[in-house]
Amino acid sequence: MKQKSIFFDPYLLRFSTFFIVMILMTNFVLGQQKVITGAVTDDQGQALVGANIKVKGTPNGAVTDEAGKYSVTASKNATLVFSFSGFAPQTVQINNQSVIDITLVREINNLQEVIVTGYRSQTRGSVLGSVTSVKGSAVVDVPVDNISNALSGRLSGVTITQGSGAPGMQSDIRIRASGTYNNTDPLYVIDGIVSDKFAFDGLTADQIEDITVLKDGASAAIYGSRAANGVLLVTTKRGKEGAPAISYTGIYGVQTPTQVPKTLSAFEQASAINLQLNYINADSNDARYYTQDELDYFKTHSWNWVDEMWQNPQSTQHSLDVSGGNSKVRYFLGGSYNYSIGSFNNLDYSKYTLRGNVDVSVTRDLKVSLDFNTDTRHTDEPSWQIGNQRQEDLYKALLVRTKMVPPYVNGDPVGNWVEWHPGVVVTPSLAGYEKRNQKELNATVAINYTVPFVKGLSVRTSLNKYDRDIFIKQLNMPYNMVLFNTTGQHSHIVGDSAVGLRPRAADDFLRSEDDKVNRYQFNVQVNYKRNFGKHGIDALLVYEQAEEDVTSFYGRKDDLISSAIDQYISAQTPKDVGGDEDQSARLSYVGLASYNYAHKYLLDASFRYDASLIFPPGHRWGFFPSASAGWVVSDEPFFKNVHFINDLKLRASVGLVGNDAVPQWQYLQLYNIVNTGAVFNSPTVGIEPGVLPNPNITWEKALSYNTGFDTRFWDNRLNFKLDLFYRRTYDILGSSQQSYPGTFGATFGSTNYQKIDAKGFEVELGYTGNGDKEFNYHVSANFGFATTKIIQVDEAENLPSYWSAIGRPVGLQSNGTSINKNGLYSSDMLLGYVAVGVIRTQAELDALPAGYTILGVKPQLGMLNYKDIRGPNSNKPDGKITADDREFLGKYSIPPMNYGLTLNFSWRSFGLGVLVQGVAGAKSMLGTVGRDIQARAEESSMEYWADSWSPENPNGKYPGYRVSSYRTRYDPSTFFLVDNSFVRLKNVNFSYALPQAITSRAGLKAVRVFFNGTNLFMIYSANKLYDPEQVLINSYPTMKNYSFGLNISL
Amino acid sequence: MAGCTKVLDKKPLSQVSEKDVWNNLDLANAYMNRIYARNLPGWSTEYADYSDESDGGGSYMYGQLTSNSVNYWPYDDIREINDLIVNIDGGTIDTTNKRILKGQAFFFRGWVYFQMVIRYGGVPLVLHPQTANEDLFVKRNTTSECMRQIVADLDSAANDLPSFGPTSGSNDGHVHKGTALAVKGRVLLYYASPQFDPNQTHTERWQAAYDANKEAKDYLESKGFGLYSDYSKLWFDEMNKEDIFVRRYQYTPNNSESWNNWAASTRPLDFSQGATGGNRPVLEIVNAYPMKDGKNINDPSSAYIYDPSYYWKNRDPRFQQTIVYNSAEWGIGNNGPQPGRIQWTYVGGEQNSPTITGFYMKKAVDTTQSAIEAYNSSTDWVELRFAEVLLNLAEAANESGKTDEAYPLLTDIRARAGIDQGSDGLYGLMPGMTKDQMREAIRLERQIELAFEGKRYWDLRRWRLFETKLNGTRRHGLTITLKISTDEWKSLKNSMSSEELESYLDQHYTDVFNDKVKVVDTQFDINWKPEYYFFAIPSSQLQLNSNLEQTMGWDGGTFDPLK
Predict the structure, then answer these.
(1) Which residues of A touch B548 (CB under 8 A)?
(2) Do residues A654 and A636 touch, judged by C-beta distance below 8 A?
(3) Distance of alpha carbon B260 from its chain centroid, rounded?
(4) How far apart are CA A916 and CA A1016, in angstroms?
(5) Quick one: CA dihedral B98, B104, B107, B109, positive or negative?
(6) Does A619 touch chain B (CB under 8 A)?
(7) Does B542 contact A492 at a Cβ distance shorter than 8 Å?
(8) In the predicted model, is pLDDT for residue A991 greater than 50?
(9) Partner residue facing B18 (CB), from A280, A671, A680
């Protein structure tokens, strides 16, 4: 429609006439003309509307219509150049063809692409900071419950770890190296509204236009107070002018574990128990020994509880949206439904979303818009008291469950040796359930007014209202397991006649909890953007105000008349009612000015002035400035002769950002009311002091420097991007507990004390193949290196330097803080002993110095011996292994290196995308489950313990020392160190777009089918024991995901 | 700009301000409730392991402790207590209640310091809530300075606390004047003991211990405290006249301080939940019980003949009320009581972690509890009962030269236990004992009367007896095996009711079972090191404060705990 109106424009008409004359002249010169038609689609088969087709060497050209079709007249030997913003241009020789369909490949770092940065949009060419982005369309094929799970490996400098495979569990997102001991979550901003992870995970990929990550300080500084960990900006799709476009996507996916660590079989488990009894010289009549008849039985009877309870998780997803509009009104309406079942029974998750926005151009200068979206998430889980909401614990328990006890006999859950039964726990009718309903309601009204009298001036004001409601209902029921007779000489074998019941008599109750979040954000923004000749100015000022209320309320009633009536009316004893309430507010002023001269010299400066309620009135306001500069060297006259470089931009920035992610009110002496008072005639409520007040508490700050360049070579086919960064985080809020003797006795809150430096670089390299009309490809690689160094930290006065964290990277030692919480792959601190090997022979034992002890114990055969490095008062070996002999056993526990390789191919209507990804350079300590060898009927141990030292197996790899209790736990040492470097095939995406000839007959614009596979194949892993992307050996396994989908547009 | 800052006017909604706590009696009492919860002693099976009561206790018993093994540094509790003592006077609570609150705080400060001093010897005395600006790098006070302060705090407590009788109704688990006096008696008894005075040169300490325990006994009796009539019901008839210092329990799901799992770990794991097994009596404690007439099992003068095969017969009644042996009746069950149930401990008689020693312990294990109730047990812990006051007084009297005064104290306890009075009315005690003989008698009486109440370990330390009595020895148990085939045994068992079976085995036990003594310390001899009487300050604390000296006997230790 738009194009038609252009033809009626008299001015254009004159031009057209001129062009027609030109074309006729060209025809005369080049000879025979013909009409070429075809369609332009993207690499996913979507029609590209408005793509440009130029006849090389002539002013001739065409633009694709709403169906992506074009028609152009050219000489039969001419060359056509296809281009579209955001895609790599493509050149095709006509060679006498009359139909040329073309697929354009998405291009990374397209300079004209418009991306959203803080409070404004910019073309990528004018961005001066370190910014990376991903289109929503790039991740639509991945069926995930939460959008964060789909982003893994797609954003350079962004690390994403999946918490657990339970449906609905979201990933942790971290940008660059963690520079603080506090929260390392980035700030989430959705359509300009400061939001949170929960809301972010409520989105679905097909509703997202793009996601931009602001990595450097200068880019993030405009979000000031909470931007120290970077900012994730999300822009959702909006309606565009045009006929209604409808799009449907349906996906089905199934998951299987990449690797489940093996544990001892029943026979090996029984043998390990006997080995332990032998080791401690237990009486040969001891009832704990497994007798020969029992050992023989377990050789052929072993029960794997994980296999018994496991089901492969599956998910389906449907989404439908429609958008369109005209010059007055534009709209986008979409909805989606997602349903997943988890790895065990009664782990279900469903999500519904509805999203719509309308933009109304009231007058030429006034635009009003309304955004409205809501989502509902529903989770079914077992009523599981231990480790609520983290079903990972269920898996962990199953993994080391005894192999010597069958889960069921004659269909009854076995209670012998078993205190609780995982199979019953996941059966709602037997053990109860927990249901979680989460709702979000989010609405934004915005008014844009272009001030008519002042060119370039506009005002925008918006009000956003956000409500969240999380309602949990839990039914907990006692249940019975069945005790069976036992056979075997020492009664170690479960028989098949029931002899009694073993109750798991947990409390019988109903409990509900309602958590609500209410907030609003009000913005007024003034923009001024204008060019004066070669001078370009873009400036803005913002006032932002937000308040938030958080309330929580819960109640519990016990003793149900019948669990069949799972309603409060049937519970008899009111037990517990509680709740709390909290309020917070933010107030901010933001300013930004950007200047460019001929788009060649670029300057940006911004500030944010922010108030945080976390701090006392005198320390509440923080000022966060930033400045950046860029120079497009390739536009300089002296560069005109450098032909192989298309463009080169140098840029540098500096910015200050803050962090206030610590608990509120720490500047006041407050007392907490707790329900753990002593019992007198009845239980009481208690009061205890809160943290020691810190009247000077203020912002944690991070000063970041970023510099780099963007360049493109060889007809824009090769692009290269380099970013170097250095960040000093100071006034880090942390406990100063270690700076005071233990006799002080106070619980410390946060003090602005610590300093951490982070530095690193990121490289991106991309190449777009000079393809033809059938075959195209794009290859890109990224590599990131980031390290941290602790400059100042809370440490004990007398801490020896070899245990000091100062000068070392973050994450090596826990130091009483929660640094490992977000530290990727870091399961335990890397402080431990240097193992020198298992003491295998009497001769080795005799060679040890007199009085030698290993952690207090006289050395014995089968023990793991360590290096004697020092004593308590000297740096010389002291003839015994004590805690003083511990060292830092690795350089990094958080991988300093991450890398990725993306390959995109398209051939005719087929598309193939491959993502290879990995990390390197860090080690981690096996967790306690890996370092424990158990000697009891209730639990098994990791399989490798089968090869441990014993008099009969003197060359066993693992130590054979056994303490007299049921569990021998080895201390952290180099013996249990694992390297977590890996390279894996992270994602494969294969798609096929049906030929237009077929789809158009069915009245459809495009139909595409696709297959997506995640974590299909490990190319290299240094860790042979478990998947290196897991935190611990017994963490919920990393999953392979296979999915199939269908995408229809009309 | 200022006009908009109103949105920033917010107040904490879920916490209480400091001032309110000291101005409001209910809040101050709640503060005290938490001090109780954090500082009251409670159930623990741990100490039985570090003694000749149970098996286990490896690193303590085999000399494997390191300087970081014992980490008890509750200065956060001390700070909370000091906060109240210093700040309560500035508030507006009435004087009577201020005094009661302070009395309780003094009591717990004395109690917590006492707990530190018996582990480490002298520790830094911090008696006010320190501010960050003062010199915090404190030194260890001498042991005698600490003891003086503990006694002073307990004196202040006795002075400020109200008087309760056992049945007043207000004695609901709060400490009272009698508690302070009885604890003071215990403190001074410890201070006089060989742990703090190895050469026994400070006779005045025994006199002080005597005076304190005498005062405690007289005072408590005047208020109606005394020995409760039934030893077996001591733990189930809660808040009886014997209970002086008690931690109460009443299971409430949201209050982790409201229950204990002692019963769960003490019961056989076949009848238990959430526990790993403790309190497994070794043969040494089993054999320590006298015969029914109070004479030692090897004493030929006993009216009863001790038969090692039928060792449970004709013993001190407290034996049956404490020790569970193979074929003993014990009415516990998974779903509640099973009256008449018999406990088997023979090889193959149990499935889930069978007892290593061949015995179980039944004191304070409530048979009415199901397995889960045993895990969430509401049975009160009695830290100090009247019988201990009598024993403390008897010991102090004997050591301070008043041996005769000890007799009636011991016979009262033996009489209550149900030991035959004997023609001399001495309940089996030897007449005319010397000080040394009486010391042994008192020590045996403590071992039996207070068995598995967490006292034996501390007594062995206090008497410095680990080395002389236990070092170089191993603890023992019984391996019990069936003499007849499993099938024969099954048909025998099924042919009789449990009463019939019990009386059958009382005559024919040796036809069915073979008891063999076994060693339970299978790897090592007991090897208590002399430095264990005062433990090392953990290096984590030394690292925080270079002014802290390490205890002598440990790496680089210079602090003399005997000063």
Answers:
(1) 741
(2) no
(3) 15
(4) 10
(5) negative
(6) no
(7) no
(8) yes
(9) A671
- The answer to whether the Cβ–Cβ distance between A883 and B83 falls below 8 Å is no
CA distances from A199 to A119, A194, A337, A519, A1041 (A): 19, 10, 16, 12, 24
CB-nearest partner of A679 from B79, B250, B253 = B250
The band of A299, judged by pLDDT with boundaries at 50, 70 and 90, is very high
Name the helix (H) or strand (E) containing A306: helix A305-309
Contact A743 B75 (CB under 8 A): yes
Tokens of A818: 């929660």
pLDDT at A1005 over 70: yes
Mean pLDDT of A892-921: 86
B182 DSSP 8-state letter:
H
CA distance B415 to chain A (A): 31
Residues of chain B with pLDDT below 50 are: 1-3
| DSSP bridge pairs for A329 | A360
Q: What pLDDT score was predicted for residue A818?
A: 33
Distance CA B488, CA B510 (A): 15
- CB–CB of A681 and B248 under 8 A? yes
Task: Tokens for B467, please give them.
Answer: 């080395």
Closest-CA distance of chain A to residue B249, Å: 6
- Averaged pLDDT, A349-364: 93
* Mean pLDDT of all residues in A936-953: 93
B interface mutation test: which of A559, A684, A801 has the most B CBs within 10 A? A684
CB contacts < 8 A, A to B, total 285
Averaged pLDDT for residues A92-117: 75
- Of A714, A593, A599, A704, the C-alpha closest to A649 is A599
Partners of residue B134 in chain A, C-beta under 8 Å: none
Task: For residue A686, give Cα distances in angstroms to A505, A672, A678, B41.
Answer: 28, 8, 8, 17
Closest by CA position to B190, among listed B448, B396, B402, B52: B396
* Over residues A624-639, mean pLDDT: 90
Looking at the partner chain, which of B129, B273, B523 has a beta carbon nearest the beta carbon of A281? B523
- Check A965 against B522: CB less than 8 A apart: no
pLDDT for res A15: 43
With a cut of 90, say whether residue A169 has pLDDT above it.
Answer: no
**pTM of this structure:** 0.87
Backbone phi, psi, residue A591, to 5°: -140, 145
- Per-residue confidence (pLDDT) for residue A25, from 0 to 100: 46
Average pLDDT over residues A942-960: 94
Which residues of B fall within a CB distance of 8 Å from A544? none
Q: How confident is the model at residue A161 (pLDDT cuts 50, 70, 90)?
A: low
Residue of chain A with shortest Cα separation from B547: A741
Is the pLDDT at A27 greater than 50? The verdict is no
More confident residue, A1041 or B322: B322
Contact of A653 with A131, CB cutoff 8 Å: no
Contact check, Cβ <8 Å, A587/B31: no
B-contacting residues in A 730-769 (Cβ below 8 Å): 738, 740-747
Q: Is the pLDDT of residue A165 over 70?
A: no
Query: Which of B131, B543, B548, B550 has the highest number of chain A CBs within 10 A, making it the mutation to test binding with A?
Result: B543
Residue from the list A287, A744, A873 with its beta carbon closest to the beta carbon of B130: A744
SS3 label, residue B297: coil
Q: Looking at per-residue confidence, does B122 or A286 come out higher?
A: B122
B69 CB neighbours in chain A (<8 A) are 856
Comparing CB atoms, the residue among B7, B62, B124 nearest residue A587 is B7
Q: How many residues does the structure list for chain B?
A: 563
- What is the C-alpha to C-alpha distance for residues B547 and A345, in angstroms, rounded to an integer? 59
The Cα–Cα gap between A348 and A765 comes to 41
Across the strands, what pairs with A249? A319, A1047
Here the ipTM equals 0.90
Residue A222 has a pLDDT of 84
